[in-house]
Specification:
- The protein has 12 helices and 17 strands.
- With about 400 residues, the chain is of the alpha+beta class.
- The strands form 3 sheets. A 7-stranded mixed beta sheet has the order 1-2-3-4-5-7-6. The protein has a 6-stranded mixed beta sheet with strand order 13-12-17-16-15-14.
- The termini are far apart.
């Protein structure tokens, strides 16, 4: 494939007519104006939107198929230039967008020395354009909620990508630094009314003291639709502030009175994120083995993902609804199962694979479970194989 960029000459009638024809004869579903009218295009041309001191527009020409699109470079007299890329219908999905953006990036940085970054924005659901940015080494920098107007619909998020001149020159990619904030999300679950009463008795003071901490940005503990279950969301300015909060809570009345109450938390922004995820997954796995949980459809539906699948020891495939119904009838009675030979592996940013040997109900089996732990643990898949 050979792609080249040819400057659009809007001083001549031919290119003005060709640009107008191209824009009105194609649908651009992810642009604010999906299909502009002749009047709108002509007004934009007269206003200098397609050519001027800080705007350059190029035809995208393919050596085999001819003219396949246009690319507009804007704000060329600023430190940040921007791009607008449009391919003709029927020519999309063939890699031409990526090649055109490569050429446009070279053009901007080679011919406009004042530009230090080249930016493009696209609608959140424009996966094709997001792939173009990614393939060209551009970095996702911002997510603007409701930032993209949609004709006849609710606004959608706008995503901003960019490439830096220094990265283009060096061939490196400078990632956007992760903020230092620590964010905790999850649930506090009481096993009985007594535990729930202790939470209610001390929660107001706990919230007040935490929000007064200098490093606390946000702290909310709110009841869910399930008795004895609270949703927890916390944000701290950095890991040191979060650790100071944890130490204060451990020595507080709240810490003493609620010790032992079940918590399922996922923490982002700490050096020990992986350890926290793995510990959460193991805690949830052990909870699933308890007879009181296995006999409770409410608890099982909370711990098992709606798309949960289990391959049983007989080889049968079970859905969540089927396993919940079966365990309600025969939950088992072993309250002290033995888990041995524990192994775990992170297989995603919030997903953990557990494998182990289980001695349960006078049986021995090898088990594997896949847990997604964001914000609370949900089991996606489980399999058991008898030993001996």
């Amino acid at each position: 494939m050979g792609i080249s960029l040819t400057r659009v000459d809007l001083s001549g009638a031919d290119d003005r007519a060709a640009l107008t024809a191209f824009l009105i004869s194609n649908v651009f579903p992810f642009h604010v104006r999906a299909r502009p009218t002749v009047a709108q295009v002509e007004n934009d041309i007269r206003a200098g939107s397609w050519d001027g001191d800080d705007v350059e527009t190029f035809w995208i020409d393919d050596e085999t198929d001819g003219r396949v699109g246009v690319i507009r470079l804007e704000d060329l007299q600023d430190a940040t230039a921007t791009v607008d890329l449009r391919l003709a219908e029927g020519t999309r999905g063939r890699g031409r967008g990526s090649e055109a953006l490569h050429l446009a990036t070279e053009r901007v940085f080679s011919h406009h020395p004042g530009v230090i970054r080249f930016e493009g924005q696209t609608r959140e659901d424009n996966v094709a354009m997001r792939r173009v940015f990614e393939r060209c080494g551009w970095v996702l920098e911002a997510h603007y909620r409701d930032g993209w107007p949609v004709e006849g619909g609710d606004p959608m998020a706008s995503l901003a990508y960019s490439v830096l001149r220094r990265d283009w020159e060096s061939g490196d990619t400078t990632p956007v630094p992760r903020g230092p904030e620590v964010i905790l999300r999850g649930e506090l679950r009481c096993a009985d009314p007594g535990e729930a009463e202790r939470v209610r008795a001390h929660l107001a003071e706990h919230i007040s003291l935490t929000r007064a901490e200098p490093g606390c940005l946000a702290f909310d503990v709110t009841p869910t639709g399930t008795d004895g279950v609270w949703s927890v969301r916390e944000r701290f300015v950095d890991e040191a502030a979060f650790d100071a909060h944890q130490r204060r809570v451990a020595a507080s009345t709240w810490g003493r009175e609620t010790a032992g109450i079940q918590r399922f938390y996922v923490i982002h922004g700490r050096a020990l994120d992986a350890d926290a995820l793995i510990a959460t997954a193991w805690s949830a796995e052990e909870t699933l083995l308890h007879p009181a949980v296995r006999s409770s459809p409410r608890e099982l539906n909370r711990l098992l993902d709606p798309a949960f699948i289990e391959v049983g020891q007989s080889g049968r495939r079970w859905t969540r609804n089927e396993i919940v119904a079966a365990l309600r009838e025969e939950p088992g009675t072993d309250r002290s199962p033995r888990i041995e030979e524990r192994e775990n592996r992170l297989v995603g940013p919030d997903t953990v694979l557990l494998t182990y040997l289980l001695r349960f109900e006078n049986r021995v089996s090898r088990r594997s479970s896949l847990w997604r732990c964001d914000p609370t643990p949900r089991c996606l898949f489980h399999q058991g194989t008898p030993v001996g």
